[in-house]
Amino acid sequence: MPGTTLEDLVLLFEQVDGAVALTGAGISTESGIPDFRSPGGLYSHIDPMEYLSVTAMYDHPERFWRFFIDVFSPIVDFEPNAGHRALARLEQAGRLVGVITQNIDGLHTKAGSETVIEVHGHLRTVHCTSCEAVAPLTEAAQQVNAGGLPTCPECGGALRPDVVLFGDQLPEIDRALELAQSVELVLVVGSSLSVTPASYLALQSGRRAIINREPTLLDSVSDVVINAPAGETLTALVEALVG
Ligand code: NAD
Q1: What would the 3-class secondary structure string for 97-151 be?
Q2: pTM higher than 0.90, yes or no?
Q3: Ligand 1 center to 28 CA (angstroms)
Q4: Using CA positions, which residue lies closest to atom 16 of ligand 1?
Q5: What is the distance between the alpha carbons of residues 194 and 211, in angstroms, rounded to a whole number?
């Protein structure tokens, strides 16, 4: 049976040589950004393959971009919460080698984490599918809001988001695997672990701890499982480990 208390988690940190955090949408809900798989979340009323896949982007570009900008562009205005800040402090104190995140919100970097691997991409930029030129997402949003499709300022080619879509390769997966394999502990925060690469990344180290509001698929193969909000649990962890 996994341990379930903060003391169990602190003890685990004391036993291991190096740890990395693996975060999902759940770490950012306390910043006001909803996750997608909880009841009432986005995935309970849309089929993500229909709106957020490479096929959707090429076959129905107007619908794809309207949806993308409406759902994702407001996310860039949110601020980090206590959970993001606690992970940044753990890294600064040498207790974490960094954060691997499924999130696209950029909040770990905003909170001060330095090594951040964004396996699902980010919302800072878009790039041209013809010449690879990079432009800010805000530029694409302006074009969509003016009723057009986002086109490259350099060559006029079609732009695409720097978010990983269903059907895309994962450009950062090798770096993420390397980082997860370099430590003894993966600390999962706010992820249902119901899809790869999250579940796969979580299995790369010998020891695992999970902080999530509800049970996950890897609870039975973890050393510690704490079913509680991420912000307060990580704040208590950083106080116990760093002071
Ligand atoms: P997910 O499957 O990893 O689910 C999130 C998990 O977090 C759930 O199990 C939920 O119980 C838990 N959770 C929610 N709030 C929590 C809290 N305060 N403390 C602890 N646990 C909490 O993620 P998803 O919602 O299915 O998202 C799918 C993908 O969509 C993500 O991998 C990501 O790429 C993208 N997404 C990103 C953001 C973001 O960038 N903030 C938000 C939503 C979705």
Answers
A1: CCEEECCCCCHHHHHCCCCEEECCEEEEEEEECCCCCEEEHHHHHHHHHCCCCCE
A2: yes
A3: 7
A4: 26
A5: 15
Chunked in runs of 10, what are the mean pLDDT values of the chain (243 residues)? 97 97 97 85 78 95 96 94 98 98 98 98 97 97 97 96 96 97 98 92 96 96 98 98 94
Binding site membership of 37 for ligand 1 (Cβ less than 6 Å): yes
CA atoms within 13 A on the CB side of 132: 0
Same domain, 60 and 93: no
**How far apart are the C-alpha atoms of 61 and 67, rounded to whole Å?**
10
- Whether 65 and 173 map to the same domain: the answer is no
Which domain covers residue 60, as residue numbers? 35-77+124-163
For residue 101 and ligand 1, the question of a CB distance below 6 A is answered with no
Residues 99 and 174 in one domain: yes
